[in-house]
Amino acid sequence: MLGDISKAEKVYIATGYTDMRKSIDGLAAIVQQNFELNPFQNSLFLFCGRKRDRMKALYWEGDGFVLLYKRLENGCFQWPQDAQAVKCITPREFRWLMEGLSLNQPKAVKKVDVQNAL
After folding, report:
1. Among residues 22, 80, 95, 109, which one has the fewest Cβ atoms lying within 10 Å of its Cβ?
2. pLDDT per residue as tens digits for the range 85-106
3. How far is CA 81 from the centre of its chain?
4. Edge to edge, what strands does the sheet with 43-48 contain?
5. How far apart are CA 9 and CA 46, in angstroms?
6. pLDDT tens digits, residue range 44-82?
7. Strands (E), the chain
8. What phi-psi label fits residue 106: left (phi over 0), alpha (psi between -120 and 50 degrees) or beta?
């Protein structure tokens, strides 16, 4: 199915700004060269421009890449402004990001790592 990103095992966010003129090949090169990840793995890669009102998502679907583009009419994404790095985010954090919220929700109930809690 075209663009069924719900099947992605991991979601990676490229923090900082990305040149939104880049197409599939340019974004795949960033994933491979800058972040040393495999763009063909079952993961969703998110990129945001300087204005933070546009986002691109790159996803390998097994037989080709899907490039999704979203432009907000009002507001902007609460995109992490760290130096060019990549961060793996949870599906919950992805949902927050799509809803215009920050990845760091101070009042959210955090999951407990049972192995490190004992």
Report:
1. 109
2. 888 998 888 998 888 888 877 6
3. 13
4. 65-71, 54-60, 43-48, 10-14, 86-89
5. 14
6. 999 999 999 999 999 999 899 999 999 989 989 988 887
7. 10-14, 43-48, 54-60, 65-71, 86-89
8. alpha
